[in-house]
Amino acid sequence: MMIGIYEEQVNQIPYLHIVKSENYNIELPTIIYFHGFTSAKEQNLPIAYMLAQKGFRVLLPESLYHGERSNGLTDKQLQMSFWNIVIQNVQDLEELRSVLLENNWLLEDKLGIAGTSMGGITTSAALAKYNWVRAAAIMMGSPKITDYANALIGNFKKYGELPISDNQVQQLLTEIEAMDLSRHVNTLDQRPVMFWHGDKDPVVPFEHSFLFYQEVKDTYLDQQNIKFIKEPGVGHKVSLNGYQEATKWFEKHLL
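Above: the chain sequence. Below: its structure as tokens.
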């Protein structure tokens, strides 16, 4: 069994396509996995390999201003672009799904979305926006993205000038709120969602995903479709166990 890694692109979005070579042109359940902030698509090859071994097709897109799409932004400019990158990720997701459909690569709409950190935030936003996401794994992301955005904006104000106007901030928050899963809980609609989070995460608050999980779990008729994995003592880094659990999750709900 050969697992192939193919470098591909659609409308300025470079992505890695990981699949058993003999299955390249066969309709398969598919996972799109988004990387974290200041990371790159190649860094998610370990979980892509695990998923491909199980029989999935996996796409690893490059986020705006990262990896092949980086364009020399300073650290501060990149920090300020965080939410624009998330919004662009959510838009890119539609393009990637179109590629799957046009090439007859997707089996019966079995499309799962997952991601790490900023990619987990993207995943929660995608659940709020797209009803065609069939299952998801949010790896140390936040489903309370308006709260998270307000906290980040507050930090910027505390440590210096915010380089955008109050009107621009308000406009951005309006866009974020429209994709905030915690503000649009009904969009979950019983879809399988798994959360993984280390309880010592200093970057994305553990409480965001944990409290959200506690708020919504009783709305699920089948408790097998929602899961929270807390990893004690772990900071802002997904463990091997986290990747294995995400793989098992998709195996259970999409294969």
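The CA atoms of residues 140 and 197 lie 5 Å apart.
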